[in-house]
Design brief:
The longest helix has 23 residues. Helix 17 packs antiparallel against helix 18 and helix 21 runs antiparallel to helix 22. By secondary structure, the chain is mainly α. It is built from 22 helices and no strands.
Length: 409
């Protein structure tokens, strides 16, 4: 090759290199090396770790640097230096921001995992050479519990947003190959508890997605299962997800029939749809477990009333009253049973033939509806029309006039 041709070739290569450098922007290989060296100088000095980190995060803003493992390893060293400095202050009982300390550990784990993900990429021949995992995972394994404590600390402070982030970091990292050697899925007994606290934080934030993210794992903490199922139900309602809401309510009632959350909402759900046979079946199942369960008896009373099974409703309501239940509902249900039977007779072609029976039904309804008025004085819309009917049919002038005045108001 002649010298003239060589010069032209050299000039062409130089021009392309300069052009490529111009197109890629300021993050040239030379600048990367300089910034890494500068960051390492900060790290070796034992101070300005934050400046070292900023140099690396600035480099990573350029997508051309995303595969440069030296940047990530230096970034990790800078954050580890910040942690060691903070830990030293705490050891010496010097003033240090607790929130910042927990943030630092969570951040250190995040950077370590990012470095590990890059380090675990196979080379051109498909080989993986892990240079950082063993040492870095050993360090984070000792520190990781503090991410959990950061979550509990945040919950105590009422900072559920931050609390969720800590528990979410703690749980998600347990699945990372970075911690593979420690097999957290089998060995970390705190995972279900962390999942419960994450679920609680999501619930407190009224965030359905975060409430449901770790709920299945949270269910493994048996001391908290009732609460987890309750939070799940609320989350499904926020999502307007009726099928999962109903399914979870049913699961909760199946497993914990006496827990006060599930049965009333199941009964309400079916009552609103007019499915009183379903309500009756649910109530009877509860009574099989607890014969004097007032909640089950009350639901059964209401279901029987709506199904027109008046004698059974009266019997069930009387049983409730014998149990000294404070609810006024049994009184209303018994009175309504008598009034509904009277209404059926009145709708016949010749109701006067049953005059005596009608009078008996109104007399039987009267004390129970008056008791209901006494127990629920604010519920005029229910007892006032009923008593108006009773007093009118029993020719009770003074009582009728009083109710008439109330209703006119």
């Amino acid at each position: 090759m002649s010298i003239r041709v060589f010069k032209r070739l050299f000039f062409s290569i130089t021009a392309v290199t300069l052009l490529a450098g111009h197109v890629c922007g300021q993050s040239t290989p030379k600048k990367v090396r300089m910034d890494i060296d500068k960051a390492k100088t900060y790290i070796k000095s034992g101070k300005d770790f934050d400046k070292a980190e900023k140099l690396m995060t600035d480099l990573l803003k350029d997508s051309a640097n995303h595969d440069n493992i030296k940047i990530y390893s230096t970034w990790y060293e800078s954050v580890l230096g910040q942690y060691n400095a903070a830990n030293e202050k705490l050891y010496l009982k010097q003033k240090y921001d607790t929130a910042a300390f927990y943030n630092l550990i969570s951040h250190l784990q995040e950077v370590a995992v990012e470095l590990d993900n890059l380090d675990a990429r196979p080379d051109k021949k498909g080989r993986v050479h892990l240079s950082y995992r063993k040492e870095n995972a050993a360090i984070l394994n000792m520190l990781r519990i503090n991410i959990y404590y950061g979550g509990t600390w945040s919950v105590r402070k009422g900072d559920y947003e931050k609390g969720f982030d800590y528990f979410d970091d703690y749980l998600d990292a347990a699945h990372q190959p970075f911690y593979e050697e420690y097999n957290y899925q089998l060995r970390d007994s705190l995972l279900p508890a962390a999942a419960y606290w994450a679920t609680l934080c999501g619930y407190k934030l009224q965030d359905a997605e975060r409430t449901l993210k770790h709920c299945q794992l949270a269910m493994k903490d048996e001391s908290k299962t009732t609460f987890v199922l309750q939070y799940m139900c609320e989350a499904y309602q926020w999502q307007k997800n009726d099928s999962d809401y109903l399914r979870t309510l049913a699961e909760g009632y199946e497993r914990y029939p006496e827990y006060p959350y599930f049965f009333p909402r199941l009964a309400d759900y079916y009552s609103e749809k007019g499915q009183y046979e379903e309500v009756l079946q649910l109530a009877d199942r509860g009574l099989d477990i607890k014969q004097d369960g007032t909640l089950f008896l009350l639901a059964k009373s209401v279901a029987l009333l709506n199904l027109g099974r008046y004698e059974e409703c009266i019997e069930t309501s009387r049983l409730l009253m014998e149990l000294k239940d404070a609810s006024p509902e049994p009184y209303f249900n018994i009175a309504t049973c008598y009034l509904n039977q009277a209404l059926t007779i009145e709708q016949e072609r010749e109701p006067r033939k049953n005059y005596q029976r009608l009078q008996k039904l109104y007399r039987e309804a009267r004390p129970f509806m008056e008791d209901y008025r006494r127990l629920a004085p604010e519920d005029k819309q229910r007892w006032a029309p009923a008593l108006y009917r009773i007093y009118l049919n029993l020719n009770m002038g003074r009582q009728f006039e009083e109710i008439d005045r109330l209703m006119r108001k």
